[in-house]
Write a structure and sequence with these properties.
Elements lengths: L4 H5 L2 H8 L22 H6 L2 E4 L8 H5 L6 E4 L10 H5 L3 E4 L1 H21 L1 H11 L5 H4 L8 E6 L3 H10 L4 E6 L5 H7 L2 E2 L2 H7 L2 E4 L13 H4 L7 E4 L8 H10 L3 E4 L19 E3 L10 H17 L7 E2 L1 H4 L4
Parallel strand pairs: 1-2, 2-3, 4-5, 4-7, 5-6, 7-8, 8-9, 9-10
Antiparallel strand pairs: 3-11
């Protein structure tokens, strides 16, 4: 993992739990598995059976795996493993686990808050209040808003998408879903209405994106599809910035026609002169929807649980396979 993250991730309790089931090297954080680094940790790597990984983990290439002859499992105490798990890992039969399910929880909570605030036009009202410093006449100005019987469109029945659907259930929303892998029967079981993506965009008051980053999903929200959004609709993106054509969306946001909650963008950090920073109809955050602060410890706890299962000879609860990566972030 990265050089700094382990100090925040591996608290004393987590290390104690790991040490109760395995011999743990608590002094070595490997951030590089290149040829130039192979001599530094060669002995430790040669003995390693499990890699406990997180953000900043070095890529597990064929060359890197040759330095890990005893490696049997990779336990990732974060979300996606695409950044460091390669085809070479699967070819060697190495088992992979991810705490993506734990990371899905705060993202879904953030999304629920974004949806509820969008319906109430909280950002608009707060800014108007700060400007006028007087009680606004809410009835005429916001008569078309609120969260009762509004339509929410969920794009992608991923872990996060499904969790958002669960969190929306107590509220009086009509929930639409677009996911090419979910049939009508499964959609009924989820309590949502399956529709095409264009239908979802046209009908939804809030569109929330939870699709994976794949070549075929790049700019799934392009200029044509963004133009289908209702006037006054809100686009929420907590998935990946590449799923939305930022320039096309910005063009609509500048006019005030639509609203957006963007936790991810393309590029990751918009240029300093981007209107996204100052537009009153945009809430822009720097990729904070996922685990943050104390929420990191949930991912750690789930990952440590996986190591305990491994030590007990039990299968992982959150194993990741190569086929899943073709449909996940």
């Amino acid at each position: 993992m990265g050089a700094d993250i382990h100090h925040r991730l591996l608290t004393e309790g987590a290390l104690d739990r790991l040490a109760s089931v395995a011999r743990v090297d608590t002094t070595t954080t490997v951030t590089d598995l290149t040829t130039t680094a192979q001599g530094v940790h060669a002995d430790q790597l040669a003995r390693t059976e499990i890699l406990f990984t997180h953000w900043g983990a070095p890529e597990l290439t064929e060359e890197a795996l040759r330095r890990l002859p005893r490696l049997r499992a990779v336990v990732h105490a974060a979300g996606s493993v695409k950044h460091h798990v390669t085809e070479a890992v699967w070819r060697r039969g190495i088992t992979v686990s991810s705490a993506a399910a734990a990371n899905a929880l705060p993202v879904a909570e953030f999304t629920l808050a974004a949806i509820l605030f969008a319906g109430k036009r909280v950002l608009d009202i707060a800014q108007r209040y700060a400007t006028t410093r007087a009680r606004p006449d809410l009835l005429p100005y916001y008569s078309g808003h609120g969260n009762y019987r509004r339509t929410v469109g969920i794009v992608g029945a991923s872990r996060i998408g499904r969790r958002v659907i669960d969190l929306l259930r107590p509220h009086d929303f009509d929930v639409l879903l677009h996911d090419p892998y979910v049939d009508a029967a499964e959609a009924r079981g989820l309590g949502v209405t399956p529709v095409t993506l264009d239908q979802l965009v046209r009908r939804s008051d809030v569109v929330s994106v939870h699709a994976p980053q794949l070549p075929e999903t790049r700019h799934m929200f392009d200029a044509r599809r963004i133009a289908l959004l209702k006037d006054g609709a809100t686009l929420v993106n907590t998935a990946r910035g590449s799923l939305v054509d930022t320039a096309a969306l910005t063009a609509h946001l500048v006019t005030g026609r639509v609203h957006a909650v963007l936790d991810v963008t393309e590029p990751d950090v918009p240029p300093a002169d981007s209107p996204l920073y100052t537009l009153p109809n945009v809430l822009l955050t720097p990729h904070i929807a996922g685990s943050l602060g104390s929420e990191l410890h949930r991912m750690t706890d789930w990952a440590v649980d996986e190591v305990v299962r491994y030590a007990q000879g039990l299968p992982f609860a959150y194993e990741v396979g190569p086929e899943e990566l073709s449909r996940s972030a």
